Request: fold
Amino acid sequence: MDKARRHHDMGGLEAGPVNRDGHDHAPWEKRVDALMVLLGRQGILTVDELRRGIEELGADAYDRYSYYERWMASMTNLLLEKRIIEVDELGERMAEIETGRREALP
Amino acid sequence: MNEPAGGHPHEHGGYDVDPTHHHPPQPDLEDTPLARHQVMQMAVTSLLIEKGIFSGDDMRAQVERMDGLNPGLGARLVARAWTDHGFRQRLLADSKDAAAELGIDTGPIPILVMENTPETHNLVVCTLCSCYPKFLLGVPPDWYKSRNYRSRAVREPRKVLAEFGTELAPDVAIRVHDSTADMRYMILPIRPTGSEGMGEEELAGLVTRDSLVGVAVPRAG
Reply:
């Protein structure tokens, strides 16, 4: 790949046939989308910041993650960066949800 | 690589799933382990609710709102433009104002409506990410966000269109519009032959999502 390009900048590159299969969005994906809208409305995150966060995930994660996984990783990084949430509380909350100590919501 | 820290004991997300690991039941995805980013979504959401940034009701209302967005909104604008010349001019000049006449909100980001003609066919892509006129078409289909579409739509649009079953005459020019976070596009397709005498509602039924992105053209019958 051209050295001047970053991995998300793929316009004009060679690629395979377009796969037209789709999938219905899972409820969690819709919540990720909703999260971005709500944070945008509150002036906490902008679409440009979301995209910058996605571009900063690195080529490997970019290709490995699904679309809304990229969004979620970017939003979480941005919220940590802005100190809206803290690393410790996030880690603790994720562990609680995973082990069923806390009800998944909403 | 800059993954969010999460004090996470293991990685899943469909890549490295431990089948012996038991997760609490999930109403959405029965028998599927909670993927890392799903857990992250739940954790972040619950923290933000706790901090009073938004409420659980706000979240539910927004999900419902997104569920209500679909290409039918864009199709209504096209059907009106096909039957009302003045509206068509207004739609091409300022889609936000024109859509408001029909009670449709195009959202916070400007949307340019590009008109197909017998000489020129328009196609929309977002090479850098996935910008899409969500407020008029709903969430973008997976292919719109795919590497193959994003890479090739600007390089060989005619071949991409053919993969969608859209064969254009060689003398029809193709203009490809690359969307950004600040500018989105919707196509105003050509009213198909055979649709003469159809009313607005019936016309709207001919307008598919793919025709509003430009990978297809509407057909009557």
Summary: Residues 27-98 of chain A form a domain with the Cyclin A; domain 1 fold (CATH 1.10.472.20). The two ends of chain A are 43 Å apart (CA to CA).
